[in-house]
């Protein structure tokens, strides 16, 4: 309430609680309080409000004229707000008391409700227990009732079975007095079921009766032997009747009738007779025309002479037709038989054992190893190729049949049993085939060589004809490649026919051993033929060796013949080097084949790979031994010609001072020039034919022989100082040539020869210093010093003794 002391402007203010409800805004409340006192602060000028009076001149204007009014207004507002707060606090206290009272009542009510709910739960638990007890009792009653009903039905069925059994046990062989059930075609299924039950019971009883009689029981009854016989007869008659109905329905393609008969027949020996009968009556097993067509499809128009490619194509066509037929039969079997997998197993087994085997018996006729078929008719290779394609196509057929359905039948094992007789002797046939091909190839090569020899004519070797073997007699890398191709084909057949790693490894080793024998024998024989040419050339050289006391005419004839023999030796040398080169290429092909094909098949089996490596090493070592002998003969041939040239071309005056006072000739001697030319020409083929250690070994041996031969040759001459210079020129020429051998030991020997030639050049008094500078030549140099033409006149012997004494 406003007091009397409040300013008049503030008295009208009255605040109510409703002002603070809803969307309360302090700004709005404050504006409503001061709008009338401060109209100049409004956003828009209030209509009818006069503007403030202008300031009086000389008087200071008030800073805030409405401050007193506002102060009174704010004090009055604060008082009203305090009053409102007291009212609200009082109302809150009243509300708290009411809430406390209501909460106490509510808690009391909840407690009473909880007690009521607990009691209700107890009642529900007792009711549930009662219901469960009643349900168990009802279930027991139901079980008893069901058991009683089952016993009643069993008793009723037993009574019927006993009645039927008495009918079957009445008179032996009399089936006319049986109940209508056993003759009603509409109740065949029921009759079959009952007959099977009676038969089982009767046979069991007959078995017990037989045992009782055996122990001598006097009270044994007659038993049910008559019932057993009658039931057997009835079951046979019923089964035959059902099979006849099944056949009729099968011919008419009445699948529902077939399925009904098959279901009933399944009660007789699990339906085996029906399954076998259905499979046996399939046209592909009984139609002779189909069997003849199969052979025609496989062999084609060629008949028994058909090759493996034709047979492979024919088998693909036939096996596709068989798979399609089995697929169609599978559709029928699935719709008819209650156990289709068993029927499919019988069908697929019959297909493989009868239809497929009949074809294989016609195309796989095992030849005799004692009398091989000629290669003109295909030889053993034809049989092996047909075996491989037939096995491959049959395996494909097995996979196709497996994808269709074959029950629990082991198709892979069945196929293996079909081919077991062929696979048992496979390795022997493969080895015999490779030997047959090898012998045929050798015969072909010999025939070609003879034909070429006959066409070119025979040239008398005694007149110096070339001894070079004809091209067909030379080793051919193409022939070795053909051997490898045969073996590779055999290996591919082996890996096709066998899958066990141990078996594969054993067979592969046997087949690869054939290749090793063939390559080793072929290369060895080729090298031996080339060696024969070397031997013949050597014999021809020896034939024309003559003494010194012969006439000029005889000597000229002998020299001409020796030239011809030398040409023959050079030709045979070239032929042997070519043979060695081809041997190396052939062995490289063999090793590459072993690395790429054979190794991966042997590595999975312990010991197989090292053994095969050992076998290959043994085969190659035989070839290497023959090649080594021939290379030594080549060195003999070369050195024989070198010795002939030295003997015929080296003159005694080559290393002496000219008697006519002419200037010394510092060019290489004619013998040196001829020998270096000969060696350069003849060794050209050796440089290209030999490689690696073989080349190094050959050239090193030839270099040693050449060094030794030259030393022995020069010991036949005496040397003047100018002759020593010419000898040194010869040695330099020889050294330059042998440097192409890339043999450091040979280079060193010829360098020492050049140093040793100084013993003919230096003055006698300088020999001591020569020995001191190069002590390694002392031994040979002491022998060569004696060849100086002034050895005696200069008393060099006494000088040497003093040198040796020092």
UniProtKB/TrEMBL annotation:
Coiled-coil positions: 78-105
Record keyword Coiled coil present: yes
Every Exocyst complex component Sec10 N-terminal domain range: 68-184
Source taxon at top rank: Eukaryota
Any GO CC annotation of this UniProt entry: exocyst
GO terms (BP aspect): exocytosis; Golgi to plasma membrane transport
UniProtKB keywords: Coiled coil, Exocytosis, Transport
Residue ranges constituting the Exocyst complex component Sec10-like alpha-helical bundle domain according to the UniProt record: 190-799
Matches recorded under InterPro entries: Sec10-like (IPR009976), Sec10_HB (IPR048627), Sec10_N (IPR048625)
Transmembrane segments: none
Pfam families: Sec10_HB, Sec10_N
Protein family membership: Belongs to the SEC10 family.
Name this polypeptide is given: Exocyst complex component Sec10
């Amino acid at each position: 309430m406003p007091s009397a002391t409040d300013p008049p402007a503030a008295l009208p203010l009255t605040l109510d609680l409703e002002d603070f409800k809803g969307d309360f805004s302090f700004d709005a409340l404050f504006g409503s309080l001061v709008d009338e006192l401060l109209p100049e602060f409004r956003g828009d000028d209030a209509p009818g409000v006069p503007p403030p009076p202008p300031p009086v001149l000389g008087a200071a204007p008030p800073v805030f004229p409405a401050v007193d009014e506002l102060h009174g207004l704010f004090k009055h507002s604060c008082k009203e707000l305090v009053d409102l707060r007291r009212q609200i606090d009082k109302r809150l206290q009243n509300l708290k008391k009411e809430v406390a009272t209501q909460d106490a009542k509510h808690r009391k009510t909840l407690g009473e409700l909880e007690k009521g709910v607990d009691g209700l739960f107890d009642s529900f638990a007792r009711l549930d227990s009662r219901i469960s007890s009643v349900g168990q009792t009802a279930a027991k009653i139901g079980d008893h009732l069901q058991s009683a009903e089952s016993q009643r039905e069993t008793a009723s069925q037993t009574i019927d079975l006993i009645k039927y059994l008495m009918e079957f046990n009445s008179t032996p062989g009399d089936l006319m007095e049986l109940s209508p059930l056993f003759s009603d075609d509409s109740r065949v299924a029921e009759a079959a079921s009952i007959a099977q039950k009676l038969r089982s019971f009767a046979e069991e009883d007959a078995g017990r009766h037989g045992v009782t009689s055996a122990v001598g029981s006097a009270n044994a009854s007659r038993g049910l032997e008559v019932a057993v016989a009658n039931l057997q007869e009835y079951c046979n008659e019923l089964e035959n009747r059902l099979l006849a109905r099944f056949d009729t329905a099968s011919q008419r393609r009445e699948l529902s009738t077939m399925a009904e008969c098959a279901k009933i027949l399944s009660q007789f020996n699990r339906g085996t007779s029906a399954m076998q009968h259905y499979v046996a009556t399939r046209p592909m097993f009984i139609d002779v025309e189909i069997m003849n067509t199969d052979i025609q499809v496989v062999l084609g128009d060629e008949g028994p002479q058909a090759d493996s490619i034709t047979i492979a194509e024919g088998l693909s066509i036939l096996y596709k037709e068989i798979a399609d037929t089995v697929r169609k039969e599978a559709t029928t079997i699935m719709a008819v038989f209650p156990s289709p997998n068993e029927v499919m197993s019988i069908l697929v087994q019959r297909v493989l054992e009868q239809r497929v085997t009949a074809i294989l018996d016609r195309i796989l006729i095992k030849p005799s190893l004692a009398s091989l078929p000629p290669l003109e008719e295909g030889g053993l290779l034809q049989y092996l190729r047909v075996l491989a394609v037939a096995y491959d196509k049959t395996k494909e057929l097995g996979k196709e049949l497996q994808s269709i359905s074959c029950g629990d039948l082991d198709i892979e094992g069945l196929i293996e049993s079909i081919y077991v007789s062929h696979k048992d002797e496979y390795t022997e046939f493969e080895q015999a085939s490779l030997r047959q091909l090898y012998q045929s190839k050798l015969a072909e090569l010999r025939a070609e060589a003879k034909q070429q020899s006959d066409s070119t004519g025979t040239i008398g070797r005694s007149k110096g004809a070339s001894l070079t073997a004809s091209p067909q007699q030379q080793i051919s890398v193409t022939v070795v490649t053909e051997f490898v191709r045969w073996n590779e084909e055999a290996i591919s057949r082996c890996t096709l026919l066998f899958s066990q790693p141990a078996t594969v490894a054993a067979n592969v080793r046997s087949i690869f051993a054939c290749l090793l024998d063939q390559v080793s024998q072929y290369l060895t024989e080729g090298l031996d033929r080339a060696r024969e040419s070397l031997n013949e050339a050597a014999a021809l050289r020896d034939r024309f060796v003559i003494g010194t006391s012969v006439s000029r005419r005889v000597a000229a004839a002998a020299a001409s013949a020796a030239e011809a023999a030398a040409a023959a030796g050079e030709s045979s040398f070239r032929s042997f080097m070519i043979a060695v080169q081809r041997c190396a290429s052939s062995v490289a092909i063999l090793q590459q084949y072993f690395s790429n094909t054979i190794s991966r098949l042997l590595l999975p089996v312990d010991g197989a790979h090292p053994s095969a490596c050992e076998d290959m090493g043994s085969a190659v070592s035989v070839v290497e031994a023959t090649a080594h002998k021939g290379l030594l003969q080549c060195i003999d041939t070369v050195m024989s010609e070198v010795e002939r040239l030295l003997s015929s071309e080296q003159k005694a005056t080559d290393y002496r001072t000219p008697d006519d006072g002419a200037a010394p000739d510092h060019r290489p001697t004619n013998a040196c020039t001829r020998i270096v030319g000969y060696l350069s020409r003849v060794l050209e083929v050796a440089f290209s034919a030999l490689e690696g250690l073989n080349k190094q070994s050959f050239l090193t041996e030839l270099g040693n022989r050449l060094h030794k031969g030259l030393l022995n040759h020069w010991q036949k001459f005496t040397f003047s100082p100018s002759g020593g210079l010419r000898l040194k020129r010869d040695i330099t020429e020889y050294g330059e040539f042998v440097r192409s051998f890339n043999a450091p030991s040979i280079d060193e020997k010829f360098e020492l020869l050049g140093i040793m030639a100084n013993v003919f050049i230096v003055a006698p008094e300088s020999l001591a210093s020569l020995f001191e500078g190069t002590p390694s030549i002392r031994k040979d140099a002491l022998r060569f010093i004696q060849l100086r033409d002034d050895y005696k006149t200069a008393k060099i012997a006494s000088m040497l003794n003093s040198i040796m004494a020092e």
